[in-house]
Amino acid sequence: MPQYQPPMRDMQFVMHELLNVVDELKMLPAHADIDADTINAVLEEGGKFAAEVIFPINLSGDAEGCTLDKATHAVTTPKGFKEAYQQYVEAGWAALSCDTEYGGQGLPLLVNQFFYEMLNSANQAWTMYPGLSHGAYEALHAHGTAEQKATYLPKLTSGEWTGTMCLTEPHCGTDLGLLRTKAEPQADGTYKITGAKIFISAGEHDMAENIIHLVLARLPDAPAGSKGISLFVVPKFNVNADGSLGSRNGIFCAGLEHKMGIHGNATAQIVLEGATGTLVGQPNKGLAAMFVMMNAARLGVGNQSLGLTEVAYQNAVTYAKDRIQMRALSGPKAPDKPADPIIVHPDVRKMLLTARAFAEGGRMLQGYTVLQLDKALKSDDEDERKEADAEVALLTPIIKAFITDNGWLATSHCMQVYGGHGFIHEWGMEQYVRDARINMIYEGTNTIQSLDLLGRKVLANNGATLKKFGKKIAAFIEEEGTNEAMQEFVNPLADLGDKVNKLTQEIGMKAFGNPDEVGAAAVDYLRVVGHMTFAYFFAQAAKIALAKKDSGDPFYTAKLATARFYFAKLLPETATLIRTCRAGLAPLMEMDEALF
Fold it and tell me: CA 367 to CA 24: how far, in whole Å?
């Protein structure tokens, strides 16, 4: 059976030693009273909830899955899911970072994000039910009318109601401009919405008394394409003027997808038959409002793979220390046993350290980015808000794509450590691999994230935002340039920074001649920039570890060893990626379609 221990020590390192989050957050009026003890206490309790309440129902929930009653359209979640959700609500976890105006606790988003990493490690499928509610909350908080906020936000904040995002249709996924769902205006100011949606995570379930769907649809006079999309809030049960639940709305689950992973989450086929909805934001401006939810979800999906990477690593390490197979090539390491534990073998260590480095790097990048998001939302300095918002926009596709790609690699490596046992359900590892695979697909495939990074976030403004982030890296390199102990980290980081600048300019010039050059380079380019961010944070972590390596705390010894492994064994991947970027479009397009 698998196990999970919340990585509190590393989280505290990232927050308090690497990012100094308390000092940073205290500069924001909304968080002026925050302190390390409060953050630590909340996350320690959150870790207990993750490890003790939802982790024990992860394996069983995967085996059981969700069931649909086709006569009533009701969905039953796996045994224990509903009860765990009630504990979640009763303990106030849903309200952690929500606005106090609607009953929230007003804690920084950073605290909620670290809490959700642990939830994702413990049970990704379960965590998606409350996780999607945060996106619905953020979209309505940013774009909802006063009436919509009063009606929906208190219940989403408390967790009594959950939320979803209904975008995808059978004939269109990423290309939302093709969607056909219609919204007919009514005399009372509401809309009757008719259409079909698929792949709606947590689209129907028995865990909360109401589900608030955010639905993209077209008004009768809407222009074609993405410029003709509006956003509507469509509750499962209509809400009366006094806030009580009214009649069943015309939105229901017609089927559940039979999926490779996340079996405990209901991925619903949703049918709308004249469902009553109200407009969110301006007509034909629905994507702008929905992007609030989508961007929150993209950070959340990166966090899902971070959680899976961590729990897979923990279990693979435990197995590798216990499982004995063969002798080390250099001679017995456990002479009292008939064979050595497999952790002595170099390639097993490589797989374990790869997962560890991807978890620790992802945690640093995620923590840094959400800290900037707190600044973007809560700073009283307009320039700081704009700069932080631009940096979050730059880093969001990297978090979504780079961390989820790494999660797929890491969970696969960890399953490999188990050998044949990794392929067996009760060990837990094969579930992590299956669950990790969806994270590269939904909320915009990783190719879409790569196009977003290179096309919209970098080339569209001539690399201005990337250059600003690069200046932070350059300042760190300058600061550590004469520190002999840091050269093994600073020199590769500086070299990669120069190469990224040159590569960006080269792709930009090619794109002037043929925009398809962006598509040819984007995926590899994102991975190069992802490595640059990881290298930046690992270099900072190494600096801290070097200063404390004689403290007697083995944590810093391990941190330094992980940083060295990352720079020696993982960062060199960028050399290949840069070469494939430069290979350009021709090798991809020269073959005639008929020859495929």
Answer: 12
* Residue 443: active-site member: yes
Q: Which residue has the tokens 């947590």?
A: 202
What is the DSSP secondary structure assignment for residue 198, as one 8-state letter? E
The amino acid sitting at 86 is Q
The residue to which tokens 């408390």 are assigned: 158
**How many beta carbons lie within 10 A of that of residue 555, not counting itself?**
14
| Annotated catalytic residue, options 24, 360, 443, 517 | 443
Greatest C-alpha distance within the chain: 84
Q: Are 436 and 427 in contact (CB under 8 A)?
A: no
pLDDT digits (tens, 9 = 90+) for 150-190: 999 999 999 999 999 999 999 988 888 889 999 999 999 99
Q: What is the pLDDT of residues 450-509, one digit of tens each?
A: 999 999 999 999 999 999 999 999 999 999 989 999 999 999 999 999 999 999 999 999
DSSP track, 307-363: HHHHHHHHHHHHHHHH-B-S--TTS-S-TTSSS-BGGGSHHHHHHHHHHHHHHHHHH
Cβ–Cβ under 8 Å, residues 286 and 384: no
Q: Which two tokens stand for residue 132?
A: 């999607």
pTM of this prediction? Answer: 0.98
pLDDT score for 226 = 87
Burial label, 482 (beta-carbon count in 10 A; 0-12, 13-18, 19+): exposed
Which residues of the chain have a pLDDT value below 50?
none
Q: Which of 472, 127, 450, 491 is nearest to 311 (CA)?
A: 127
Rounded distance, CA 394 to CA 467, Å? 11
Handedness of CA 176, 180, 186, 192 (dihedral sign): negative
Task: Tell me which residue of 139, 138, 257, 261 sits closest to 197, measured CA to CA.
Answer: 257
Per-position DSSP letters for 448-470, written without gaps between them: HHHHIIIIIIIGGGTTHHHHHHH
Q: Give the per-residue pLDDT at 196.
A: 97
